[in-house]
Write a structure and sequence with these properties.
By secondary structure, the chain is an alpha/beta fold. The protein folds into 3 domains: about 230 residues, Alpha-Beta Complex (2-enoyl-CoA Hydratase, Chain A, domain 1); about 130 residues, no CATH class; about 55 residues, OB fold (Dihydrolipoamide Acetyltransferase, E2P). Helix content is about 40%, strand content about 15%. The strands form 4 sheets. Strands 8-5-3-2-1-11 form a 6-stranded parallel sheet, sandwiched between helices. Strand 15 and strand 16 form a beta hairpin. The longest helix is centred in the last third of the chain and has 27 residues. It is elongated, with a radius of gyration of 41 Å. The N and C termini lie far apart (about 140 Å).
Length: about 475
């Protein structure tokens, strides 16, 4: 079939097709800059322990799930527990996001455990007026001459830097265990410094000599990467940096990025309360006394339930802390003596021994000299005095009970009025005496239902006489 094309169309000159306009959606996307992923901010304020370690570990994991580009740890700490510090450092080293440690605000510090966390971070920053260092590990039992003891060298930030032999320098004195902790801590911090390309020599001296630095001095010695006055300034300074995170390079785009602060949730707050040594000690003491009251008054239920819960919560809090088990044994022994005083009154001897054992155990319970992790002496004294008052009250009740005349037994039956259960046969029969059935004997004949009075006892046989000589009840 032949298809004819109109001549007009055939003769029309061919023109270049007009340039296609981009789609409206594409135009708006190209014109609008892509929003930078947000920055997560976690705050470590105070001594580092199980609660804020859990908060930081979960916060870093949540930031990775939520698509954040950077985690900033804002730090102000005097130090903390070694196990909690290492949990935080493990989370930083294994994070899929870069982590920046920022010692802020002005007047804050990253001492001891805080220094290790700063060195472990991908970016180390400080605010003006802050300090870092004094990373010597603190242990219980360190005496004069040991690290942290009165005889150990603790030069300040202006101490002369003797580079030759700095790596070898150790505090005078100290036993093998102190040197072991010191060498382990120095090697750990030096390894973190080498990983991040920071001043490893000063890091080791900070451990061995308890050195500290201001923010400007730390920047000059390449202990940190930058000094920033606030979070927006920090975000602006790290913008465009390329960091190595788990073997891959990550470029930051933080200028103008939204900053989202992650506050501690209920789990962190509850854990913070439970891991307070004073609270844990009080919970354990209340638990023991609650169980004691339940045993003394079976069926009360409430003291037993509350006591069991307090005891378990107290023990849970203690197992997260560096507990001296000798101190814990003294506390349990003291509480056991106090319980024994309630059940086996020794007129205060057991109770007094229990108070002494409890005080000794409470004072040595927490196996660290770190700030915020000791048990106040005032609290120990208050608990001991309260226990002593309870023991004195128990002993007083025992003494009064001992002096009281016997209210039960055979002598209590004399003078009782009883009722005959049957007629006497051969001068003997059965009677209801005080709700109990006794064999009774009388010189006079007795009728069923007749009232009699107990006048004596011969073994299991009670001697009775009729209350009156009128017959009561029916004759059997």
């Amino acid at each position: 079939m032949l298809i004819c094309i109109p001549a007009a169309n055939a003769a029309q000159p061919s023109a270049a097709p007009p340039t296609a306009a981009p789609p409206i959606a594409a135009q708006s996307t190209a014109a609008r800059p892509t929003a930078a992923p947000p920055i997560a901010v976690l705050t470590i304020d105070g001594a580092i322990g199980p609660a804020n370690a859990d908060y930081v570990v979960r916060g870093i994991a949540r930031a990775a799930r939520d698509g954040k580009q950077l985690v900033i740890l804002r730090i102000d700490t005097p130090g903390g527990l070694d196990t909690a510090m290492r949990d935080i450092i493990k989370a930083i080293l294994n994070s899929s996001l870069p982590v920046a440690s920022y010692v802020a605000p002005g007047g804050a510090r990253a001492a001891s455990a805080g220094t290790y966390i700063v060195y472990a971070s991908h970016i180390a920053a400080m605010a003006p007026g802050t300090n870092i260092g004094a990373a010597t590990p603190v242990q219980v039992g360190i005496g004069p001459g040991g690290p942290g003891g009165p005889g150990s060298p603790v030069p300040g930030p202006s101490a002369p830097a003797d580079k030759e032999g700095a790596d070898k320098k150790e505090p005078a004195g100290g036993g093998a265990m102190e040197r072991k902790h010191l060498n382990d801590a120095a090697a750990y911090l030096r390894g973190l410094a080498q990983m991040r390309g920071r001043n490893a020599e000063w890091a080791e001296r900070s451990v061995r000599e308890s050195l500290s630095l201001s923010a400007d001095d730390a920047l000059k010695l390449k202990v940190i990467d930058l000094v920033a006055s606030d979070l927006p300034a920090l975000a602006a300074q790290v913008d465009g940096r390329v960091l190595t995170v788990l073997g891959r390079e990550v470029k930051l785009a933080t200028r103008g990025a939204p900053v989202e602060a992650a506050q501690p949730d209920w789990r962190t707050r509850v854990l913070s309360v439970l891991t307070n040594p004073s609270i844990a000690l009080l919970l354990m003491t209340l638990g023991i006394y609650g169980m004691l009251f339940e045993f003394m008054s079976p069926g009360a239920v409430a003291p037993g339930v509350i006591g069991a819960l307090c005891l378990l919560l107290g023990l849970y809090g203690l197992q997260l802390l560096p507990v001296n088990y000798a101190g814990l044994a003294f506390i349990m022994l003291g509480l056991a003596f106090m319980v024994g005083e309630a059940f086996l009154p020794s007129f205060g001897v057991l109770g007094l021994g229990g108070v002494v054992a409890f005080v000794a155990g409470a004072l040595m319970l927490i196996d660290t000299d770190l700030p915020d992790y000791g048990i106040p002496v005032g609290l120990v004294a208050a608990v001991a005095v309260t226990s002593a008052i309870l023991i004195a009250a128990t002993a007083g009740v025992a003494l009064r009970t001992r002096r009281r005349a016997v209210a039960g037994g055979p002598s209590a039956l004399l003078g009782e009025v009883a009722e005959m259960l049957d007629a006497s046969i051969g001068g003997e029969g059965w009677a209801n005496v005080g709700g109990e059935t006794w064999r009774v004997a009388s010189a006079a004949p007795l009728m069923r239902g007749q009232k009699v009075k107990v006048v004596g006892r011969s073994g299991p046989l009670l001697m009775v006489t009729p209350v009156d000589y009128q017959q009561q009840g029916e004759r059997s």
